[in-house]
Amino acid sequence: MPSPASSRPAPRPAAGPAERIAARMPPASFFLTSAVFHYLGPSLAVLLFAHIAVLGVAWLRIASAAVVFAVWRRPWRILATAGRPQRLVFVALGVVLAGMNSLFYLAVDRLPLSTVGAIEFLGTVILAAAGTRTGRNVLALVLAVSGVAVLTALRLSAQPLGLAFAFANCAGFMLYVVLGHRIASTAADGSGSPASPLSGIDQLGLAMLIAAIAATPLGIFPAAPSFAHPQWLAWGIGVGICSSVIPYVTDQLAMARLPRATFALMLALLPAAATVIGLIVLHQVPTLKDIAGVGLVILGVAIHRKPSPASINAGEAKVRAAAVKHLLRRVVAAPSRQATHLPADRQNHAGRITGMCRVGPGSAGRPARGGPGSGR
What we know:
Elements: H1 4-7, H2 17-24, H3 27-48, H4 54-73, H5 84-108, H6 113-130, H7 135-155, H8 160-184, H9 199-219, H10 230-255, H11 260-266, H12 269-282, H13 288-302, H14 309-333, H15 336-340, H16 344-357
């Protein structure tokens, strides 16, 4: 029989300086940092396209970020405790990162940064609106789609391939938000909430190592010229740090403390950031139609309303009520002989299920722990 001391849960490790600083910073500060670097890095990459092929720059970005995470966090250590489902999440996120970054660079090589940023953001509007189907959110989605339609109509005939890459990147960005929120709110072993705010960064670092492996077959040879030019190589490493280390780390710190719908809502700043950075760094002056299209996308997200805890709990109450009705129908439909000869333990178990599923007055108003409205 284990002693009382051995049955106690293991204490959490003491927080280091990085964890303490991260805990004191407001989540919005992490997101604002991400909003700046999310497009500053790609704008520097566009300037590097003159010397290195697009897929080569994408590989330098991913590989340099993977090296930084490997040296800083040694993320392979979490494999020892991660279960098979969580390992599949790491692999999926790594493949998504490799594909998303490559598609994004193929798009910005052909289209203005603001256009690609607005199309990329359309996916997050769909993702956020899917959480709450209301008239207000339908209007938000219509505005965002209209803004993207204005932007794509300007360049559909001139750059159809660029638009195809941009929409494929949009789909990848949606997967990144979903998988990124998963690792930000789940411990590395797949259990409950992470004990450390840097747990999501460790999981992200492991996914980035997988992304580097996935991107190598198509990117290593286009990146070869940088190995003979130290300045280009340093440039590519800087692109990786600005594009895949700073914004992704701050994304994880923000997603760990923000609900998915709130994070998607704050992403409305990204199209505006892409427009401003494209103007300053790449001298891409937007037309009036460009500004109108980006403005519609931003407006669509600005009016979106995230689900309230009361509506979430009301929906859960309806699900529980439906479960009770389904259980009662099965009991009534069962032969009377089986119903009267149930073992005592199964009768008690059925009673416990009915008690757990019972919906009383006011149950929809109680706060739900761990739901989308609580940020966990």
